[in-house]
Amino acid sequence: MVLQKNRLCPHCGSDLHCCKNCSHFDESLSSKCREPESPWIPERVGQNTCPYFEFATDPHSKECHKEVLSEAERAKEAFRALFRNL
User: Fold this and answer.
1) Per-residue pLDDT tens for 60-83?
2) Cβ neighbours of residue 60 under 8 Å, at least 6 residues apart?
3) Closest by CA position to 51, among listed 3, 13, 10
4) Closest-CA residue to 16 (of 49, 58, 47)
5) DSSP string of 15-44?
6) 2 or 35, which is more confident
7) To the nearest 5 percent, what fractions of the chain are helix, strand and coil?
8) Would you say the pTM of this structure is higher than 0.70?
9) Domain residue extents for the chain
10) What is the separation of C-alpha 49 from the centre of its chain, rounded to a whole number of angstroms?
11) Cα dist. 18→5, 26, 37, 54 in Å?
12) Most CB contacts within 10 A, which of 7, 14, 27, 65?
């Protein structure tokens, strides 16, 4: 899912486009990222501009962030449904 870089969670107000919400984030690695080409980003919680960002859908994501993802998926499905029977 592609997110605008300045988007905030409507429920908790935290930045959505940040390392901690990325599917590549891995606390156990020294770089904290499984994407080998990603730039070094010192702030893992705040907004960043990493081009490899992919919104995480894992069970460790905050529940309110999952709601943002499901809202986007519902919107995409509604859009697809408009053109299904053409």
Assistant:
1) 556 656 666 666 677 777 778 888
2) none
3) 3
4) 47
5) BSSSGGGBTTB-TTSSSSBS-TTPPP-S-S
6) 35
7) 30, 5, 65
8) no
9) 19-83
10) 12
11) 9, 13, 16, 10
12) 65
Whether residue 46 contacts residue 20, with contact meaning beta carbons closer than 8 Å, is answered with no
Rounded CA separation 10/6 (Å): 12
The C-alpha atoms of residue 78 and residue 62 are separated, in whole angstroms, by 25
As a whole number of angstroms, the distance between CA 82 and CA 63 comes to: 29
Contacts 24+ apart (CB under 8 A), 8-14: 9/62, 9/64, 9/65, 9/68, 10/64, 10/68, 11/64, 11/67, 11/68, 12/62, 12/64, 14/45, 14/62
CA distance 43 to 26: 14
How far, in Å, are 35, 41, 86 from residue 22 at the CA level? 10, 12, 36
